Structure formats: C-alpha cells, structure tokens
Amino acid sequence: MSDITREEVIEYDKKYNQHPWLTGTADAIPIERAEGIYFWDYNGKKYYDMSSQLANVNLGYGNRDIIRAIQKQVEILPYIAPAHASGPRSELAKMLIDIAPDNMAKVFFTCGGSDANEAAIYAARTFTGRSKILSRYRSYHGSTLGSGNLSGDPRRFALEKPAASGFLKFFDPYVYRSDIKFNNDEEASAYYLGLLEQQIQYESPDQIAAIEVETITGANGVIIPPNGYLQGLRKLCDKYGILLICDEVMAGFGRTGKMFSFEHWGIKPDIISFAKGVTCGYVQLGGIIISKEIAKYFEDKVFLYGLTYSGHSLACAAGVASVNYYSEHKILDHVNEVGKVFGELLEEIKEKHKCVGDVRYIGLFGAVELVKDKEKRTPIVPYGYDEKKTMAQIQGMLKERGFSAFGRENNINVTPPLIITEEELREAFKILDEVLTIVDKEFI
Ligand SMILES: Cc1ncc(COP(=O)(O)O)c(C=O)c1O
C-alpha cells in the first residue's frame, strides 16, 4: 500500500506519469480504494464502476477468492521462467481448454490482450505460410505494433507511420449505420459477407493467413453481428483455407452471458485471443487458445514468440480463482438474469431521449449511441473527429455524478461488473437518465 498523501498523488502523477491516450498535462482523478462495483476517490466520493474499468474487472473489487489465491501463490512461487511447468500455469491451461470448444488444444499465455493478438498473428502466419491478415475498421485489437496495425479504429494511425505490411481492413456488419434497409439479419449478413468474399478474391485467398474479428465489437460501440454473419464467416474461411481468429479479450469471460461470445452463434474459431476477464484485473494476463491442428503443427517446431512473464504464477493463480468463481457462483446465470433488466433500462433510455439513436446490448455488454438527429441517425460527433470534445464533456458529466463509463466516437459503453444487482443497476441508470436529459436540451 502506498502511504503518500492525496496531494502527493496528484502532484507526482502530473509530474512523473505519462498516461496512455492522454496529453502530458491531463488531470487524472486520484482514486484511493474500491469494493464490489464501486470505487472512491481521495475525497471519499463514490463512483459506480459502470465500465468495470476497461471492461476487465468483471467480478468487481474485493473478491476474497481471487485475493487469497494470489496471496497463497506469492508465498509458494511468485514467479518461474516460462520454460518450466508450474501449478497455476498447468491448472489454468487445462481449465481454459475445458471451457473452450472441442477443436481447441493448447494455451499460450501473454501479459494482456495486445500481446495475445501479436501471438495470434505470429501463429497464424507461421502455420499457414501466408502473410495477409484481414480485420475490420471499427475494431480495436491492441496498441503494440502488430496488434495496433491489426486494429481498425483511429488509434492505429499513430502506429501506421509507416504502416506494417499485410494488414487489410474490411467493413463491419454495422446495420444501424448502413444505407441499405435490410429486411432481416440473414439479408444483412449475406450483404456484408458478399462484399468480404469479393475482397478476399481481390487480395488472392492464398495470401491470406487469417481473418480476425472482435466477435462482438467492444470499445467501438458494442456492434453485435447479425444472425448468420459469424456462421457465414466461418464458412468463408473454410472455403479459402483462411484461419478465423476471434478476439474475445473484451467479450469473453461472461460479459455476454456465455463464457465466450462466439458460443451465441455456435461457431468454432481456429484461434481465440483472451485477456481482461480471465483474471478480472487482479493481475494482468492474456493469451491465445489454439486449435488441435495448429498445436500439432508446433509439435516439432519451435514456437518463436515469448515473454518473460508468459504464464506468470500470480496471474495464473488469479485466473484459476476467477474461472472457478464464474462457475461456482453461477455468474453466467446472473448475467443472463440481470441482463434482461439491463436491456429494459437501455430501451427505456432510447425511447425517452432524442439524443439516443440506438442502444445495443447482450448480457451486460451495452452501448448507447448518441445522435444529433434521431430520424437521420446523424452521429453527435463525426467519426474520428470530436473537435469540441463533446463526448468527453458528456462522460465528464456522468463521472461528476458518480457514473464512471468509457466509450469511443459517439458511444457511451455500459459494461458494469458482472456481479451488479438489479437495484444497483436501476440506481446507476438514474444518473445516466439525468445526464442524457441535459444532452437532449443542451448538446443537440
Ligand atoms: C477486443 C480487444 N482486444 C485487445 C485489446 C488490448 O488488450 P490490452 O489492453 O490488454 O493489451 C483490447 C483492449 O481494450 C480489446 O478490447
């Protein structure tokens, strides 16, 4: 525990910390402690953590099972180099293969989501001998060189100077923002997959190693694929011998009411990348789960990718405790139950506020898309360009009132801890309602 005062926290932070995605002089709210779905700043002000921080603190704060598992492990073996076998690494790998689809064989652990996707890129290119990787425009896969180039959202631009080769983008099945009015999900899926197939042919299928998607786009506004899309994507990949990589970093581990979100559509990827909810932020961990075929390929070939902290003992111990907690405490059932109320509350918000163009949700994974004109669906800020910092102001008003969330472009993402109760949800939504009332009057 740090013993410095509130004033020192603020002063040293501003002087010595460079925060990600912020300017060097940005003011960061100093946070002192947290419990359950709440955290408190140094003035004792309480916040509803309506984003589970970065959609990772899925089981909330103060989870005794995870804390005790880390405490126990740090006494026995805090760290051992990745070439060794260790209790937590072996146990967690087995647990993940047990919950993954039956075509999966092995786990390679990383420290988070970005390096998980780096490992996925490496494995896919090496296994197929092909170089191109296709991913979608409205996606985020990380901010290391490879995962950043794989990402589609504007955060990639900084890492594209120059752009790494072999990363190509295609359009998301973002039905709400489509000019075409589809009659049903299947029609929408066929349209987007048809475009993608043309692109695959233009790029030469035998040069494409993998198509990587966030199964459900997370940070960029919880874009849920229309029914049939993922099944069609799986078929396209099979047709051309392309690997399908599902990035489950944000959507995995119960967020949508299933352990992995692709289970909603019954598909089996070739590689799954994961992080966040596997340890719920208590210690950082990520990784990829690879299929039997890919694991077999590496049986007699060296996996030429590694990290000092791959499969860190404390992280894996936190992972074992978290994954056990999900099942022992029936977290998925809870998400599905409370998720119904979550959906109703979001629909009420959409009905009531003229600034809300769309709400999208599945389990406890939700987004509120803000518009200037509901009829025309004009986003409240243009894509990639929020000159007046409108969204930051709106997020600021929410935070001032104790509703902590995050979002990108014209979306407010709402991804509370999966342990949230119906009462807590209803209370927090009163704040959202209050702020959207101000947005209706003063921002559009
Ligand atoms: C879908 C997805 N993939 C990858 C990442 C990168 O993970 P990390 O920040 O742990 O490197 C994120 C982070 O938000 C994410 O949402």
What does this structure look like?
With 444 residues, the chain is α/β, with parallel strands linked by helices. It folds into two domains: 6-62 and 330-442, Alpha-Beta Complex (Aspartate Aminotransferase, domain 1), CATH 3.90.1150.10; 65-328, Aspartate Aminotransferase, domain 2 (3-Layer(aba) Sandwich), CATH 3.40.640.10. It has 13 helices and 15 strands. The protein has helices at residues 6-16, 52-55, 64-76, 87-99, 113-128, 145-150, 185-203, 229-240, 292-297, 313-328, 331-352, 390-400, 422-442; strands spanning 31-35, 38-41, 46-49, 104-110, 132-136, 167-170, 208-214, 243-247, 271-274, 286-291, 356-362, 365-373, 378-379, 403-404, 411-414. The strands form three sheets. A seven-stranded mixed beta sheet has the order 4-10-9-8-7-5-6, with helices on both faces. A four-stranded mixed beta sheet has the order 1-2-3-14. A hairpin with a 2-residue loop joins strand 1 (31-35) and strand 2. Helix 4 (87-99) crosses helix 10 (313-328) and helix 11 (331-352) runs parallel beside helix 13 (422-442). The longest helix is centred in the C-terminal third of the chain and has 22 residues, at 331-352. The mean pLDDT is 97. The structure holds pyridoxal-5'-phosphate. Pyridoxal-5'-phosphate binds next to helix 5. Pyridoxal-5'-phosphate (PLP) is lined by residues 54, 112-114, 117, 140-142, 214, 218-219, 247, 249-250, 275, 286.
